Amino acid sequence: MSVPSTTGSAAPQVCTTCPYCGVGCGVLAQPDGHGGLTISGDKSHPANAGRLCSKGSALGETVDLADRLLTPEIDGAPADWDNALDLVAQRFRDTIAQHGPDSVAFYVSGQLLTEDYYVANKLMKGFIGSANIDTNSRLCMASSVAGHRRAFGTDTVPGLYTDIEDADVVVLVGSNMAWCHPVLYQRLVAARKARPEMRVINIDPRRTATSDIADLHLAIEPGSDAALFNGLLAEIVAKGATDQAFTAEHVTGFHEALEATSSGDLAATGLPPGQIRAFFDLWLRNEKVVTVYSQGVNQSSSGTDKVNAIINCHLATGRIGRPGMGPFSVTGQPNAMGGREVGGLANMLACHLDIEVPEHRAAVKDFWNSPGIPDGPGLKAVDMFRAVRDGRIKALWVICTNPAVSMPDADAVRAAIEACDFVVVSDVTGRTDTARLADVRLPATGWGEKDGTVTNSERCISRQRAVLPAPGEARHDWRILADVAARMGWQKEFDYRNPAEIFREYAALSGIAGTLGRDFDISAKADISDSDYESLAPFHWPCSARKIGGRFFADGQFYTGDGRARMLPVTPREPVSRPSADYPLRLNTGRVRDHWHTMTRTAKSPRLSQHLAEPYLELHPADAQDRGLAPADLARVESRVGTAILRVVVTDRVRPGSVFAPMHWTGETASAGRIDAVVAAVTDPVSGQPESKGSVVQVARFDAGWYGFAVSAAEPFPTDAYWAKARMRDGWRTELAGDACPDDWEAYARALFDLPDAEVLSLLDPTRGLARLALLRDGRVAAALFASPSPVAVARNHVATLVGTMAEAATLSGRPGADMPDPGATVCACFDVGVNTVLAAIREQNLASVEAIGAALQAGTNCGSCRPELATLLAAAQVREAAE
Ligand SMILES: Nc1nc2c(c(=O)[nH]1)N[C@H]1C(S)=C(S)[C@@H](COP(=O)(O)OP(=O)(O)OC[C@H]3O[C@@H](n4cnc5c(=O)[nH]c(N)nc54)[C@H](O)[C@@H]3O)O[C@H]1N2
Ligand SMILES: Nc1nc2c(c(=O)[nH]1)N[C@H]1C(S)=C(S)[C@@H](COP(=O)(O)OP(=O)(O)OC[C@H]3O[C@@H](n4cnc5c(=O)[nH]c(N)nc54)[C@H](O)[C@@H]3O)O[C@H]1N2
Ligand code: SF4
Ligand SMILES: [Mo]
Fold first, then answer.
1. What digits encode the pLDDT tens for the residues 243-253?
2. Pocket of ligand 2 contains residue 136 by CB under 6 Å
3. What strands lie across the sheet with 37-41, from one edge to the other?
4. Which of 521, 582, 668, 796 is most buried, by CB atoms within 10 Å?
5. Does residue 806 have a pLDDT over 50?
6. Which pTM does this prediction carry?
7. How many degrees, rounded to 5, is the angle at CA 506 between CA 545 and CA 393?
8. Is there an atom of ligand 3 within 6 Å of 330 CB?
9. Mind listing the pLDDT tens digit for each residue in 557-608?
10. In contact, 270 and 220? CB cutoff 8 Å
11. 183 in ligand 3 pocket by Cβ < 6 Å?
12. Are strands 422-427 and 395-399 parallel, antiparallel or unpaired?
């Protein structure tokens, strides 16, 4: 829907949806006339009512065409679409003819739109006749899917976002909501402010920005969530808090679940008894409890059991599907939920139909008019890449995901892709670790250019709409898939003209699913016209003659054979990899506030790249001391499968014995920052989801001969033992380290910055190993390098402002003049406010609240994503003041 322009002749404002997290915020986007977009939150969208986080607000900075893949490529050379599509179709056809349908596979993504996903699934399961289509949701939501299916007989999130606001107790388990679902977190913060009696409990081995709001932070032993919730179940029963009417009528497995609990469970959590009591008391005293859970639960070798241990407690108390209560698995990707609905996982069919149920298969086969549907599940992601490695899969199509970075045992995955006979990658850029390995690269349209629907964490289906034209020769993912299908012989079955047509077919199929007793039914939309699809407003499923929107399960109607929910007996298990003398530390991994996954989009934004500009390792002070590691040193993190080199952050946010590293850095952005190279490919036996947060590692100093910090107008391509680069407003900032100092710093710098003829200003002190160089073009700084034998101590945010300035005597000091204080590391990305600026303002202006900081500096007043960090700075300053 185009909202009429408010600015006269300018391009119209388009109402669309954010392409990042599963909160699914509505966005208003308007071309700014310079290739970018002006972005604001959509006040009419039920998810965000106008709010956006730092990533959503910066969307306009990510749509330029730098690094975009704009034409198809075969073996690295530009090709036309006909040749590329013919080749893909022919290689898939030949491979299938020779080795059977299970010798090919698609690996797709929760960031595809529902319409793209539907076509991919239909092609593989319905026409190629293999179930070898899996998605990165296997690394993300698979344990929640499996847990839901075991408990409810369907993969359905019962509640709505308003339940989180209406609850009296919100339990956040393995969720860093402040950084990962920021707008939902802001809704929680606002609700809590309006009702100060509301209580928030955060269960996470690590203290995070989310812990800031928590009345109780349970720094649980990694992996011990099932033990804690088993303990809670036993307590519910012991204290008579069971809803006997609900369990008697609507639940089976109560006694088995209770019997599986043991008095020893709670010891495994490592929590002080007082904290456990406080948690249990809050849970038992309040009926309105919502338990929100995310990757700390799912990404575990016992993820499915953790999910069921949580759901058990809600079923036992009948606290499900009513306002302000219920288990709530929040989805990660913008269309993680849509992908589950459309059957993107190797063990599902479309519309919550089951590939293993003959009646379901027959219905879908008839509807698709397909030659046959495989009668069992295909390979799940980890097994799929093992099959690629073993040569069982000979042709692979990767769409909208970057497995060479995000899969566990990522070096082995990279090697498997490289060795595979035929690899196709559809992406918006060719510069990903995975796309670089492809035989055929296909340019896809990206956010802002494509049209379709997504489903967010609360089952709300929204439109993404194009606001920019498709660049170069890029095509929509659904169309690329349909073009290949046509060339494989299924022209008629894939003859779609637009996404509306695909959506109608999908909605009609959901009506059949509804008649087969499934809950995913949006058949009321099956006859939607093209223009109504164009203006489709966000709606919650189901949407059929029988039910529109709302919650599930308060009525005790479940989707199992007997209509009752299942409580599951859960025996808590530790993570599979155990710390040992060789690998004594537990490696936890996750996200940072301003980056999205493998950074192909967020790294384009200078402001999103400032908050955390380098891959890092959080390490407890005791563990750092044992290894002789100081803040800003480099560390080598090693497991049985691989190595990463990361910057050391010494902090008691992590427990002794645990380290944390972000998942975002890639071969494009750092020399050895791919943390999944270190993560072992251990999976949950039920869901197949990898244990991304439970590997064991050893950490040792990475002894560098020299360290460097560089800024440059143009992108540098270092080859040193360590480097990590990030975009900044006028170019690039790069951290460097090498084994032995270059003999000739000037020659080194000229090569690094590819500035062979630049004039060089230098300040060299070979005896102390210090080097400072500025490379000039027409008297202005084109690049600068600061090197020393220990981690370089220059004011980075100041040095970053040198590029493009006239060189002068102070250029190589690395410090701003007394009249220009160093702002320090960026906290507020929207207004570019640094830590030092915030601390100085707190001190000098006696600021006592986050609001006061906002009034003084603007920090935290736009998207609000940095408000938890501002609160932490404020608290630290106040503690210091009290101590002084
Ligand atoms: N900024 C940003 N936001 C994102 C994304 C992004 O890339 N960047 N990605 C999106 C996606 S796809 C997803 S899936 C979500 C993920 O959202 P989250 O799940 O909130 O994010 P993570 O940082 O992966 O992990 C959450 C927390 O789990 C904790 N944890 C680790 N082990 C355990 C454990 O054994 N028990 C418990 N209770 N906790 C544990 C970690 O310390 C971490 O703080 O974020 C979405 N939002
Ligand atoms: N160690 C560790 N590993 C993890 C996790 C963790 O917490 N720890 N989290 C896991 C989770 S939850 C997730 S969801 C995954 C995410 O991991 P990935 O899915 O691998 O990460 P992305 O960077 O989001 O990859 C999306 C790719 O699609 C491209 N793209 C963007 N838009 C489009 C489009 O419209 N069409 C096409 N064809 N391509 C497009 C992007 O450029 C990018 O290359 O990582 C998983 N891996
Ligand atoms: S919370 Fe942020 S990243 Fe998530 S959908 Fe909303 S604006 Fe996008
Ligand atoms: Mo995810």
1. 999 999 999 99
2. yes
3. 2-3, 13-17, 26-31, 37-41
4. 521
5. yes
6. 0.95
7. 145
8. no
9. 999 999 999 999 999 999 999 999 999 999 999 999 999 999 999 999 988 9
10. yes
11. yes
12. parallel
